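Table 4 source record.
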Amino acid sequence: MGKETKLGINDYWFVALVFLAALLGPIPFLGLIVYGTLVEDSKVIKGGSKSALILYAGVHILQYLLNVVEYLVRCFDMSEYGLNTFYRFMDRIDYFIDGVFYGAILVFIVINVIKGLSAGASVNVGASRPVSSAVNPMLAAGIEKAEKEAAASEPAAAAPAQEEAPRKTPEVCPNCGKKLAEGVKFCAGCGTKIG
């Protein structure tokens, strides 16, 4: 489940920013990784930063190795046009590696944004304070007051008809909020008398 960072965004969104920074260059990329590692205390951020760093470093190391091979071949190429097909092949490999890198970065960004959106909804739900037992008496008093006001505003002729009709059990307990079975007289969660 995602939590909010000190920047005020969800930690999955922060990881998506780290992957986006990998496309922008090494300075914003490494800056966000250093910030996330030193300032933020989140396993999601640290794990995402580690994945982004491994992907970024792996692609660049592979590209540098291919460049070394290409330069070594150029050193031994005595003719002007002798190895053109080799150079074109190396260029295609380089483009392929770039495409895989950019595609992987975009996939990771989308995954983390989706996780951030779903975790953001659950963070908001979790952030709203559940009704505790200290608040429940005030809630119960408010419900009781509203019921009395509604009963007082009804005409006197409707009162006998209401007494004759069987009272329906509420869906949830007004004290603890636990779901109630039909026809119960006491809440199974807190023991409050129902009806």
